[in-house]
Design goal:
single chain; 3-stranded mixed β-sheet
Amino acid sequence: MVYTEDTVLAKEEGVQVVKMDGTRENFDPEKLRGSLRRAGAPTTTIEAIVLKIEHEIEDGMTTGEIYKRAYNILEKEERPVAARYSLRRAITEFGPSGFPFEHFVSEIFRAKGFEVQTGVMVQGKCVEHEVDMIAENDSTEISMEIKFHNNPKIKSDLKVALYVKSRFDDIFAEQSREVSGKEKQGWLLTNTKFTKNALRYAECAGLNIVSWSYPGEENLHKMIEETGLHPLTCLTGIPAREKTLLVNQGIVLCRDIKQNPNLLEEVGLKEDVISNILDEANQLCVPTVN
């Protein structure tokens, strides 16, 4: 589930919070409890955070501020939980380039049993197209357009969905299922959200779309939790400068530093800091079994 400001709503009836898109909602402490619980927080910590937020909440407080207050408590007391709680925000730290996110998505699909190629040039019926990722297993071939935003407020809109659908129509018009025997699917995946019109069009036109929390059973967040491939950027023990250095080297997974701790030495981190980071990574990077 999503552990960000969009799932952290506000207090008793009559007190409202402002979401990222500017809309207002009434407080619901059960949603706050739920997001903390799904992040793995123990009951005592959950109740302490809820009580603190209920005490401090004011009408018109942003969900971003509520998220920060909850995160600050978790960071002091439950670092691996804080990392899970900040997962969506951590992915935006891959930016500004979209390449680290594309690499991250490709690793998720490899973990799900697909053979993956990235940056593939494909001839369509009319023109040639560059496809961000092609993932294949025994029965399916997925051609995927990957849209990364380093601002969680930005949504992929109808124009994007129309553009991507037209590209896949051109590609699939030139390809035949009979050649490979595999079902060919066109996907549009983003780390943020889609507008309502984009969702409506995709459902009508048969475009497979995946966002942070859509669709309910196979969204990006669930894929991350199921595979245990958490982004390096969610680790609370790595300073921002060193995170950037690692991402720029193509290191995007917690798993990467678990398998090669020398990477942390190479960016100048000291032994005691590295030990704490590895402890956090070992606790965090475990697939979730629902």
